[in-house]
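Quick entry between incubations.
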Amino acid sequence: MTIRITAAAALALLMVVSGAAPAGAAEKTLTIGLLGPLSGAAASYGVELQRGAEMKTDEINKAGGLKIGGDVYKLKLVAYDQKAQAAEAATATNKLVFQDKTKYIIGNAVGATCNAAQTITEPNKVLFAFVCWGTSNLAPDKPYSFRSMLSQWELAEPFYRWVKETHPNIKRVAAISPNDTSGKDTNTAVVKALKSLGFEVAGDEYYERGTKDFYPILTKVLAQKPDMIDVAAAPAGEAGLILKQALELGFKGAKGWTAGTNPFTIISVAGREAAEGVWSPANINVKSEHVNSAVRKFGEAYEKRYGEVPGVIAVANYAAFDVFAQAMQRAGSVDTERVLDVLTKERFETVWGPLVIGGKETYGIDRQFLYPLVISEVRGGQVVDLAQVLPAALKKK
Amino acid sequence: MSTQLLIQSAMNGFGLAVVYILVALGLTLIFSILGIINFAHGEFYMLGGFATYYAFGVFGLHYVLALLLAVLAVGGAGVLAERLVFRRLRGKTLNGFIVSLGLLWVLQASAQLGFGVLDKAVPSAVGGVLRVGSVVISSERLLVIVSGVVLIAALYVFLTFTRAGRAMRAVAQDADAAALQGVNIEAVSALGFGVGCGLAGAAGALLAPIFAVSPTMGALPVVKAFIIIIVGGMGSLPGAVIGGLLLGAVEGIGTLFMSSAAVSMLGFLVVIAVLLVRPRGLFGVA
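Done. Structure below.
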């Protein structure tokens, strides 16, 4: 009898200590996967993805979990480093799907790695949200895939239209990107926009990821006398080096960064002088008075926690987590078919404001998150908003 | 194509070559003395970069002092690696190869945990650019080239005219015969490993202000260094210098005529061609 009472008391104590919930809603764990380049030259993307996801996961768990149907789910985030390589991404996705048994992967970057991951997520009906910029990442035969950030196809045309209207002296533009799917697709979108708007293409150049010395490629580009260099899909570290070395070689023209997801990061690598004047259409300036209070609040919490200003990738992945969580709650289930049904039919309130999912005219299927883009400029070591523009797909909505 | 563009490209190539040579010389020195192909050599280059980042960028020491500290610290790390790991593997090429791969991952993962994964910018040590006509070179790069050439010359003097250097060459030629002549093989091995790693550390330290530093920064230079020592001949110091100049020229000038992917491929095509025609490399001994 004494033993039984002691055991019961120990169990009760254990429940108090571990914070176990009383009977009622059954508490379960929902594993959410995340892929990303968490090391290497593109690590800035992966780190932001992970931090955005961590912020939302902790927010949900601190609020007691995610109530879906009759159950309460605590979220468990499992992240793997795919090193910006397709083969690594396939291995990591296999681990997430078959070892960790996740049905949701929220977060990935670098186009080729998304293609590799989709060979596993699509046949296994795993819902997959990413910020990859490959054209082929969204397609009618990939119904479980969503892009949570504007890509080159939404950004390049309105960005260069703005350049043409505000800086008519810029005639010749050279684009430099990494030699992979993201880079090729981005340069293709930039070149297409340039040609359609009447610019001359002064360079359509590629470099191998990991390159540090851009003198050879810049010597070739600068010989074509561009008025503007776009470090299109280069990640922050490499984009910074390109701009720094271009300045050393005497380039004084305009600078763009079509995929410039966080201009704050380029300042630290390129230095203030080389980064001065860089335009970016992909970024969101969380400190701007023009963004809504939800984004500003997220930015403040992020900076307090990580000591850095979040870029658009962190915001996008935070928003993607939010959208998927809302969709699960509305579906009353974690079954991906039912959640997909909600995702494609309903609208969601997020840090972006009311979120629109579109893109059918470009990709043949509505799987692209749409929101207004802000063109910003690096000025005196700060990021200043210049204009807010609607992507063509959003205008139609 | 203008002459000035060619000169600029050749200059770019020479700048690349000096760095490649520093890394390759250390790699080939270690191979010639211990018979070990050190895949972790790029991580010693990375350690040199981070030593400079902390000494110069964070703690604000004078750049020259930071460079010296970086070389000594990485050289010391090399001696430690030889004592703890590679000494027992001397002459066992396959075992050494596998262990060095393990060391690569350990050092890289440790760096990611310790230093973080993002690129870290190191302030410029010297500012400004030098212009001759339309040919441009930054003062930072000029400093790297001059320092690199001085280090290569210093290594030559050390190996040719000092007792320790001659002992290293003797061990490289025939360890048993050197031992019979009273050369302390263990001390020479440790010194050789230390000098080899110190050279990689010097390259990393010199390039830190130009390229920024990150835990994976050693991956590309070590691949280039392997191309160089295979072309130049495994264990041959003059081979490493000529191989480095050749690769620098191919990359510097080649980029003018073809894409960067094609240029990268060209380096490996040169390796294949040399291995087919002269398997021991340009300066290697059979």
